[in-house]
Design a protein that fits this description.
By secondary structure, the chain is of the alpha+beta class. It folds into two domains: 82 residues, 2-Layer Sandwich (Threonyl-tRNA Synthetase, Chain A, domain 2), CATH 3.30.980; 47 residues, Replication Terminator Protein, Chain A, domain 2 (2-Layer Sandwich). A hairpin with a 4-residue loop joins strand 1 and strand 2. The chain is globular and about 40 Å long.
Length: 132
Amino acid sequence: MQRDFGTGRSVEAHFGKKKSKCDYIVPRPLEEAEIRAVEAAVNAEISRDLPVGSFDVPRADAEETYDMGKVPPDAESIRIVTIGGLDVIPCVGGHVGRTSEIGRFEIYSYEMRSEDRLRIRFRLVDRPRGAA
């Protein structure tokens, strides 16, 4: 979404075992073909089998470098998650060791929540057994 539509990071997100969602600020509603292109692009990145790692930094250091909007305000040590050379972000959730461990990304619905806010609902399917 950031690369292809210039959205910036999601403005709201929820990640669950059965379903997840992300909201983005978009300049216009996306067409079905564009949504399917997003799905294909995400799956292409997943299939690259990128390593996922993390490191901890003091909050003051993280605030100078990273978007801390979704980090709890009382967190003092911030875990930074790296996904190959694709992304680096503060995060408090669990993570796999490699992107290929999450299975296939599937967008099952999307809608404009307002004039410029797109909600994408998705799930991960065909996850290998034992993947977190």
